[in-house]
């Protein structure tokens, strides 16, 4: 398993604006990007978010991985 700091490094390396996204949701966002075949670059989350399959995968992951409060925060983040 990866340490939290490694995961943080991955997120900041990617240049993604994941500020305000709960950490449980960050893991989902990246895991779903790995699990979805799109024409997007792995870390091009805006591009992935155009893909219904990706959105369903990450939403399902967030619902199971996050508390209700975190899931709401993730939802707000996704729509800003």
UniProtKB/TrEMBL annotation:
User: Would you name any one GO CC term?
Assistant: extracellular region
Q: Where in the cell is it found?
A: Secreted
Mind listing the UniProt keywords for this protein, alphabetically? Disulfide bond, Secreted, Signal
The scientific name of the source species is: Melampsora medusae f. sp. deltoidis
Which PROSITE patterns does the protein's record reference? CFEM
Q: Do you know which SMART domains this protein is assigned to? A: CFEM
InterPro entries with a match to the protein in the record: Extracellular_membr_CFEM_dom
Which sequence ranges form a coiled-coil region, renumbered to this chain? none
Disulfide bond listed as a keyword: yes
- Stretches assigned to the CFEM domain: 1-80
Specify the protein name: CFEM domain-containing protein
Q: Which domain of life is it from?
A: Eukaryota
**Pfam family of the protein (one):** CFEM
């Amino acid at each position: 398993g990866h340490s939290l700091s490694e995961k943080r490094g991955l997120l900041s390396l990617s240049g993604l604006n994941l500020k305000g996204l709960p950490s449980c949701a960050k893991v989902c966002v990246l895991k779903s990007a790995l699990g979805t075949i799109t024409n997007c670059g792995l870390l091009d989350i805006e591009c992935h978010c155009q893909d219904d399959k990706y959105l369903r995968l990450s939403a399902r992951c967030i619902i199971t991985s996050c508390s209700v409060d975190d899931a709401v925060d993730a939802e707000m983040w996704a729509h800003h």
